[in-house]
Design goal:
- The complex is a heterodimer of chains A (about 350) and B (about 325).
- Chain A is an all-alpha fold and about 350 residues long.
- In chain A, helix 9 (about 210-245) packs across helix 11 and helix 12 (about 270-295) packs across helix 13 (about 300-310).
- Chain A has 14 helices and no strands.
- Chain A has helices spanning about 10-15, 25-65, 70-75, 80-90, 95-110, 120-155, 160-175, 180-195, 210-245, 245-255, 260-270, 270-295, 300-310, 315-340.
- Chain A has a domain at about 120-349: MetI-like (MetI-like fold, Orthogonal Bundle), CATH 1.10.3720.10.
- Chain B has about 325 residues and is of the alpha/beta class.
- Chain B has a domain at about 40-60 and about 85-235: Rossmann fold (3-Layer(aba) Sandwich).
- In chain B, the strands form 2 sheets. In chain B, strands 6-7-8-3-9-10-12-11 form an 8-stranded mixed sheet, sandwiched between helices. Chain B has a 4-stranded antiparallel sheet with strand order 2-1-4-5, covered by helices on one side.
- The longest helix of chain B is centred in the middle third of the chain and has 17 residues, at about 195-210.
- Chain B is globular and about 65 Å long.
- The chains are: A mainly alpha (about 350), B alpha/beta (about 325).
- Chains A and B meet through helix 1, helix 10 and helix 11 of A and helix 2, helix 3, helix 4, helix 5 and helix 6 of B.
- The structure holds adenosine-5'-triphosphate, iron/sulfur cluster (SF4) and magnesium ion (MG).
- Magnesium ion (MG) binds near residues 53, 103, 185 and 186 of chain B.
Chain lengths: ~350, ~325
């Protein structure tokens, strides 16, 4: 018989090679984290010029497009003299680049200038609105992730099942409606018509937390609902692909329970795309929050920005844009860190 | 460990597997009868599409029931029926009592987890080793399957390993909990020739030292000659012949086996003879003997009756109507 050989003692031959090179633990940690640190440094380095670019664009657009802010502030009946005087006070008689440079150096010294109305520092204005917006958007983010991701993972792993079928139809309906419209309808229906939850009105976060929470429920749901649908879809699609992979079968062959499989293997493999989406959704949610705050009478940076844009209050608009852009960039960085953790294969590129 | 010698470690009887997508179930595997004893290595040989993977997956109930289901038969582990076992108990069989090595080491390891994590999983589910003990066991396993420098490898991800090393990791995973039965589904198909031989030797030597009952699936009869005690030949979803390796190679009793032997390189002075014709498409099997359209010895009667897998000698069975009258050529004859 051709090619028949005995069984070789392969195990015995190769079994002994267990001695490893023991590197110092601290060194090894730095070594392992190096690509991550490099990435973070790169992103932070890019963030500064990016923010300058964003602010410059906003500055340029508002300088071109808005009517004379001095006239807008003083009203139609103002005399040309008083308008000219205000223009001088606000520095509007300076050249565009000169003004932008002044603003930028102010930012470099930690200030965002004063509002053109009432001379309140922009930072003060923003910090008044920030708690409300942060609560709104953070709560909406958490709600979106907590509902969208587990539901998507489960439905994706059991395609064609009951959960999948029902959730798919709901998500299709949810996605067919414009985001702003959903927010408005929810507010009108739940608080104005049915009076299930408190209607519009000023929200004081410092007061009774339960009252504050009750005030937040509708706007949070209004912001989150369309995003939940989108995130569910994305997660389900990714999980469905992962569920078909050979390595999932390998895990099953090892005796893993379906629940552990979902929680560990499928989750980690399927979450790259949903996490990226969630990062993008933060920006969208801040945008919708502006509408919801205005409609619902909440004093957040969104409504401050809308107000400022309507009254040509450029320093406030710029301040809000800058803060928002910084937040969105921070979210992107977090997304990248998450991806780094979730997808080891992509690390070295 | 008081298991009587005459109870097979794994025995599969009358296995029927059907595709269930859309409408009526279409049987693609029918009449698979196999049994493997402790310390024995069985080769399951058949062309691509003959149903080897389906059989391996059915034995561990890993088929996706939305697509393909086991529709008849039995799978027994030391006499215990597995097909009717509750899923929770079946989970304790997978990995613990039956280890599986899959066809493609490139896709069968999870890219998002270190190999240490993946090896550790089975140990965590099936044993009560402490964290430290499990870690040591993982290192020991990596050494056992011939992976050098386990301390470095253990924290690496699959994409950092070569194909051969990945397959060694797969083997380590399959044997981690010292299963009594090992199923290796085409463990070497995706590897280069040198690595193939090493991996086969590894599986065979582990089978011996760990006293497992082992099934190695392959489409290459040459592979089984070196490492298998017995061989079952599969054609179009059926076992057509089963015998000890020597018996099957020297005295084949089924025309398909004869053809396979003749197409081995090195037999017949280097002339490589393929088997003319195509195997039937799965689920569209011809009437009577399924090999009849390609069989050089076919008679009209062959397409009329379904041949049974009949014992022709102790430990030699064949599924051919003309088995008694034919003088088939083995190797070295
Ligand atoms: N999920 C599936 N959907 C449809 N058909 C399938 C599926 N799985 C297997 N089959 C069919 O069943 C038959 C047997 O498949 P199986 O994978 O068991 O073959 P195999 O002997 O392992 O072949 P290979 O050498 O290619 O791995 C094939 O013809 C294949 O077309
Ligand atoms: S039964 Fe007839 S056709 Fe089938 S293998 Fe035997 S001789 Fe060939
Ligand atoms: Mg196969």
């Amino acid at each position: 018989m051709s090619g028949i050989s005995g069984r070789g003692p392969v195990v015995a031959l190769v079994g002994g090679a267990t001695a490893g090179r023991g590197a110092k633990p601290a060194n090894r940690f730095v070594q392992k984290a190096a690509p991550l640190l490099r990435m973070v440094a790169r992103r932070v380095g890019i963030a500064v010029p990016l923010l300058v670019l964003v602010s410059f664009s906003v500055f340029a657009i508002s300088s071109i497009s808005t009517a004379d802010p001095a006239r807008a502030i003083l009203g139609e009946g103002a005399t040309p003299q008083s308008v000219a005087q205000l223009r001088h006070q606000l520095g509007l008689d300076q050249s565009f680049l000169h003004r932008y440079w002044d603003w930028l150096s102010g930012v470099a010294h930690g200030g965002l200038g004063n509002s053109w109305y009432g001379n309140i520092p922009v930072l003060t204005k923003i910090s008044q609105g920030l708690p409300t917006t942060i609560s709104l958007v953070l709560a909406a983010m958490i709600l979106t992730a907590v509902v969208g991701i587990p539901l998507g993972l489960y439905a994706g792993m059991r395609r064609g099942g009951k959960v999948d079928t029902i959730a798919n139809s709901l998500a299709a309906i949810g996605l067919a409606m414009p985001e702003f419209w959903v927010a408005l309808v929810l507010i009108l229906l739940l608080s104005v018509k049915l009076r299930v939850l408190p209607g519009t009105g000023a929200l004081t976060l410092s007061g009774d937390p339960w009252q504050a929470a009750r005030h937040l429920i509708i706007p949070v749901v209004a912001i989150a609902l369309p995003q939940i649908c989108a995130l569910y879809r994305q997660t389900r699609a990714s999980a469905a692909i992962v569920a078909q992979q050979d390595y999932v079968r390998t895990a099953r062959a090892g005796g893993i329970s379906e629940w552990s499989l979902l929680r560990t293997r499928v989750a980690k493999n399927a979450l790259v795309a949903p996490v990226t989406l969630l990062g993008l959704q933060l920006g969208r949610m801040i945008g919708i929050a502006a509408v919801v705050e205005s409609v619902y009478g909440l004093h957040g940076i969104g409504s401050i920005a809308v107000q400022a844009a309507l009254t040509s209050d450029l320093p406030v608009v710029l301040g809000v844009v800058l803060v928002t852009a910084a937040v969105v960039m921070a979210a992107n960085l977090l997304t990248d860190i998450a991806t780094y953790y979730l997808a080891p294969k992509a690390r070295n590129s | 460990m008081n298991r009587t010698a005459d109870v097979a470690a794994l025995s599969i009887g009358g296995l029927e597997i059907s595709l269930v997508q859309g409408g009526r179930p279409v049987p693609v595997v029918t009449g698979v009868n196999l049994s493997v004893n402790k310390k024995e290595v069985l080769g399951l040989v058949g062309e691509s599409g003959s149903g080897k993977s389906l059989t391996s997956l059915a034995a561990t109930r890993l088929l996706d029931p939305r697509v393909v289901r086991t529709t008849a038969g039995s799978v027994k582990l030391f006499g215990k029926e597995l097909l009717t076992l509750p899923e929770a108990e079946m989970r304790r069989v997978r990995g613990k009592e039956i280890g599986i090595i899959f066809q493609d080491p490139m896709t069968s390891l999870d890219p998002a987890f270190t190999i240490g994590y993946q090896l550790n999983c089975g140990l965590r589910w099936h044993t009560d080793l402490t964290r430290a003990a499990a870690r040591n066991r993982v290192l020991e396993l990596l050494g056992l399957v011939g992976i050098g420098d386990p301390r470095r490898r253990v924290d690496q991800y699959p994409h950092q390993l070569s194909g051969g090393t990945r397959q060694r990791v797969m083997i380590a995973m399959a044997i981690a909990c010292e299963p009594k039965v090992l199923i290796a589904d085409e463990p070497t198909t995706a590897l280069d020739a040198t690595t193939q031989a090493q991996i086969l030797e590894l599986i065979a030597s582990l089978a011996t030292t760990m006293e497992m009952a082992t099934v190695i699936t392959t489409h290459d009869l040459g592979v089984v000659a070196d490492v298998c005690d017995r061989v079952a030949v599969m054609y179009a979803g059926q076992i057509v012949e089963c015998a000890t390796t020597d018996e099957l190679f020297y005295r084949p009793k089924h025309p398909y086996t004869e053809r396979l032997l003749q197409s081995l390189p090195g037999v017949r002075a280097g002339r490589l003879q393929g088997i003319p014709g195509q195997p039937p498409r799965s689920g569209r099997f011809p009437q009577g003997c399924r090999f009849a359209p390609r069989c050089p010895y076919a008679r009209p009667g062959c397409s009329a009756d379904d041949p049974e897998l009949t014992r022709v000698q102790t430990d030699h069975a064949a599924r051919c109507l003309r088995e008694a009258e034919l003088e088939l050529t083995g190797v070295g004859a």
